[in-house]
Amino acid sequence: MSNDENERELTRLWRITRTVKTMCLDRGYELTEDECAIPLSQFRDLVTDDTGTPQRTKMAFTARPSAEMLARYTPLPKPGSVATPEPQIGTIHVEFNPNTSVGIKDLKQFAQLLQEKNYYTGIFITQAAPTSSALKIIPSLLPIQMEIFKEEDLLVNISRHELVPKHLLLSPEEKKGLLERYRLKETQLPRIRVDDPMARYLGLRRGQVVKIIRKSETAGRYASYRWVI
């Protein structure tokens, strides 16, 4: 690559990295605002080689869930049980795949890394969409939590768009309180698909409930709730 091409690619990857780190922060992982807003000059020093070419293998990072996030992912105790349920969340590992195509071998290698390092969730960021045969093996990798994003989908942070309302995941206790307050079953709530862009951004899972806060000209703002399916 020429110097100009390196600089364009570097700037592009820098924007993607800022989006990914902000996404993890918004989910509740322990990242600082400074880490999410890393300056381009610092990013350049961290990820380029001696020729100034950005290396995706240097862009990987991990983050632990905050205490608040652990609480939001801790199931309610079963009736009659004295044991405290374990949080259904843990350390996340984010990796940028350097290959221009992604197949079964790439996903299996990433899954193996997550398992060996005992990471609870993995985000695999690719330059191109994985092959259809590669996507079919993901269910067989359970209980590993693996998410796949294309680089181009992370160039802009959708959660910061003025037309996108704020989404907040309810804890199991908050979900229970909501259903009891309105005397509802979760199936009676409006729904949001697990592959909705904001559901993907927050890593929502089926059965969870998300609070959506919108602006209102009369009330200032109002909240609605969606059940993730």
From TrEMBL:
InterPro entries: Arch_Rpo5/euc_Rpb5 (IPR014381), RNA_pol_Rpb5_N (IPR005571), RNA_pol_Rpb5_N_sf (IPR036710), RNA_pol_subH/Rpb5_C (IPR000783), RNA_pol_subH/Rpb5_CS (IPR020608), RPB5-like_sf (IPR035913). One of its GO terms (cellular component) is RNA polymerase II, core complex. GO terms for molecular function: DNA binding; DNA-directed RNA polymerase activity. Residues 156-228 form the RNA polymerase subunit H/Rpb5 C-terminal domain. It holds the Pfam family RNA_pol_Rpb5_N. Its main location: nucleus. Belongs to the archaeal Rpo5/eukaryotic RPB5 RNA polymerase subunit family. HAMAP family: RNApol_Rpo5_RPB5. This is DNA-directed RNA polymerases I, II, and III subunit RPABC1. The lineage of its organism: Eukaryota, Fungi, Dikarya, Ascomycota, Pezizomycotina.
